[in-house]
């Protein structure tokens, strides 16, 4: 983000039509999604139209913000505002994943031992209080997902992407635009490879392990945690791709580049969440 630190005012944008269009496109998206999950024939088409409309709104809305930044209308106050906004956004994401980790903890550390205690043996004598166990007659048998090889490979990929992104950031601060673009592109590529491996992992889970969303609390928590993380990796890769385009267009300087920093914060947050997932979901 370019900024004019000498400007004494706090820039206030004029009236914009994009918030209204964003609300309408999101409403269409959710109407389509609700129709889709309820078996309505029009649901998928309406959902896709809403998603495409939302993407278009974001493209033009963010384009306006980039134009304001590059025209020198932003100053240090705007830069601080963006930093606080991104910080609170990431905090909300921390709480989002904390809810799912909390559900996993509650199921494993509280509910499972409770169902396997002596009192419940009377009403369910065949139940074994073991995480990943599929009691006969309740759900289809499945196998649990271990840490090798794909989850471990994905861990190495994300750790490497954090390194390449940091190298890119230091290159930008040193004014080395070519090096910045190269390592940033490497980060996006590592994220794409991560997602490719996760898709393969899901195919393996469904076809070879019979592990599905319907595989009890194990299946639901596994796919909710890893699936939402994969969604965040995809968003982060899109954000970094936009930043890469802006780097190639010469939008950032060594001193003023919070657009880059904000996307990097988000990516490092995604890395940290994965480390928690890798330990709790695949190893424990």
Order of helices and strands: HHHHHHHH
Here the CATH topology of the largest domain equals Four Helix Bundle (Hemerythrin (Met), subunit A)
Helix content: over 70%
Rg is: 23 Å
Give the domain tally.
Answer: 2
Q: Any overview of this molecule?
A:
The protein has 284 residues and is mainly alpha-helical. The chain is globular. The longest helix is centred in the middle third of the chain and has 40 residues, at 76-115. It is built from 8 helices and no strands. It has helices at residues 18-37, 43-70, 76-115, 118-121, 150-173, 177-207, 216-248, 258-283. The protein folds into 2 domains: 1-74, Helix Hairpins, CATH 1.10.287.70; 75-283, Four Helix Bundle (Hemerythrin (Met), subunit A), CATH 1.20.120.80. Mean pLDDT is 91; it is low at 1-6.
Could you provide a short overview of the structure?
This protein is mainly α. It has helices at residues 18-37, 43-70, 76-115, 118-121, 150-173, 177-207, 216-248, 258-283.
From the structure above, extract its key features:
2 domains; 284 residues; Four Helix Bundle (Hemerythrin (Met), subunit A); mainly alpha; single chain; Helix Hairpins; disordered N terminus
């Amino acid at each position: 983000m370019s900024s004019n630190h000498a400007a004494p005012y706090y820039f206030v944008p004029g009236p914009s039509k994009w918030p209204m269009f964003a609300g309408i496109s999101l409403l269409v998206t959710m109407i389509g999604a609700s129709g889709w999950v309820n078996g309505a024939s029009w649901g998928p088409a309406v959902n896709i139209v809403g998603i495409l409309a939302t993407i278009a709104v974001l493209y033009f809305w963010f384009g306006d913000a980039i134009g304001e930044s590059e025209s020198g209308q932003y100053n240090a106050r705007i830069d601080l505002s963006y930093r606080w906004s991104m910080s609170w956004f990431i905090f909300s994401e921390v709480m989002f994943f904390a809810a799912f980790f909390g559900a996993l903890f509650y199921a494993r550390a509280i509910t499972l031992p409770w169902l396997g205690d002596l009192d419940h043996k009377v009403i369910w004598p065949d139940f074994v209080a073991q995480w990943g166990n599929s009691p006969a007659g309740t759900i289809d048998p499945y196998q649990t997902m271990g840490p090798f090889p794909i989850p471990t490979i994905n861990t190495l990929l994300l750790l490497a992407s954090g390194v390449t992104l940091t190298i890119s950031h230091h290159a930008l601060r040193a004014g080395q635009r070519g090096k910045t673009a190269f390592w940033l592109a490497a980060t996006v590529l590592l994220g794409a490879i991560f997602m490719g491996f996760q898709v393969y992992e899901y195919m393996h889970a469904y076809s070879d392990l019979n592990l599905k969303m319907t595989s009890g609390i194990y299946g639901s928590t596994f796919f909710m945690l890893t699936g939402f993380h994969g969604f965040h990796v995809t968003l982060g890769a899109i954000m970094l791709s936009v930043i890469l385009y802006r780097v190639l267009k010469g939008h950032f300087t060594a001193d003023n580049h919070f657009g880059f920093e904000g996307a990097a914060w988000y990516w490092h947050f995604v890395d940290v969440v994965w480390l928690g997932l890798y330990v709790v979901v695949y190893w424990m």
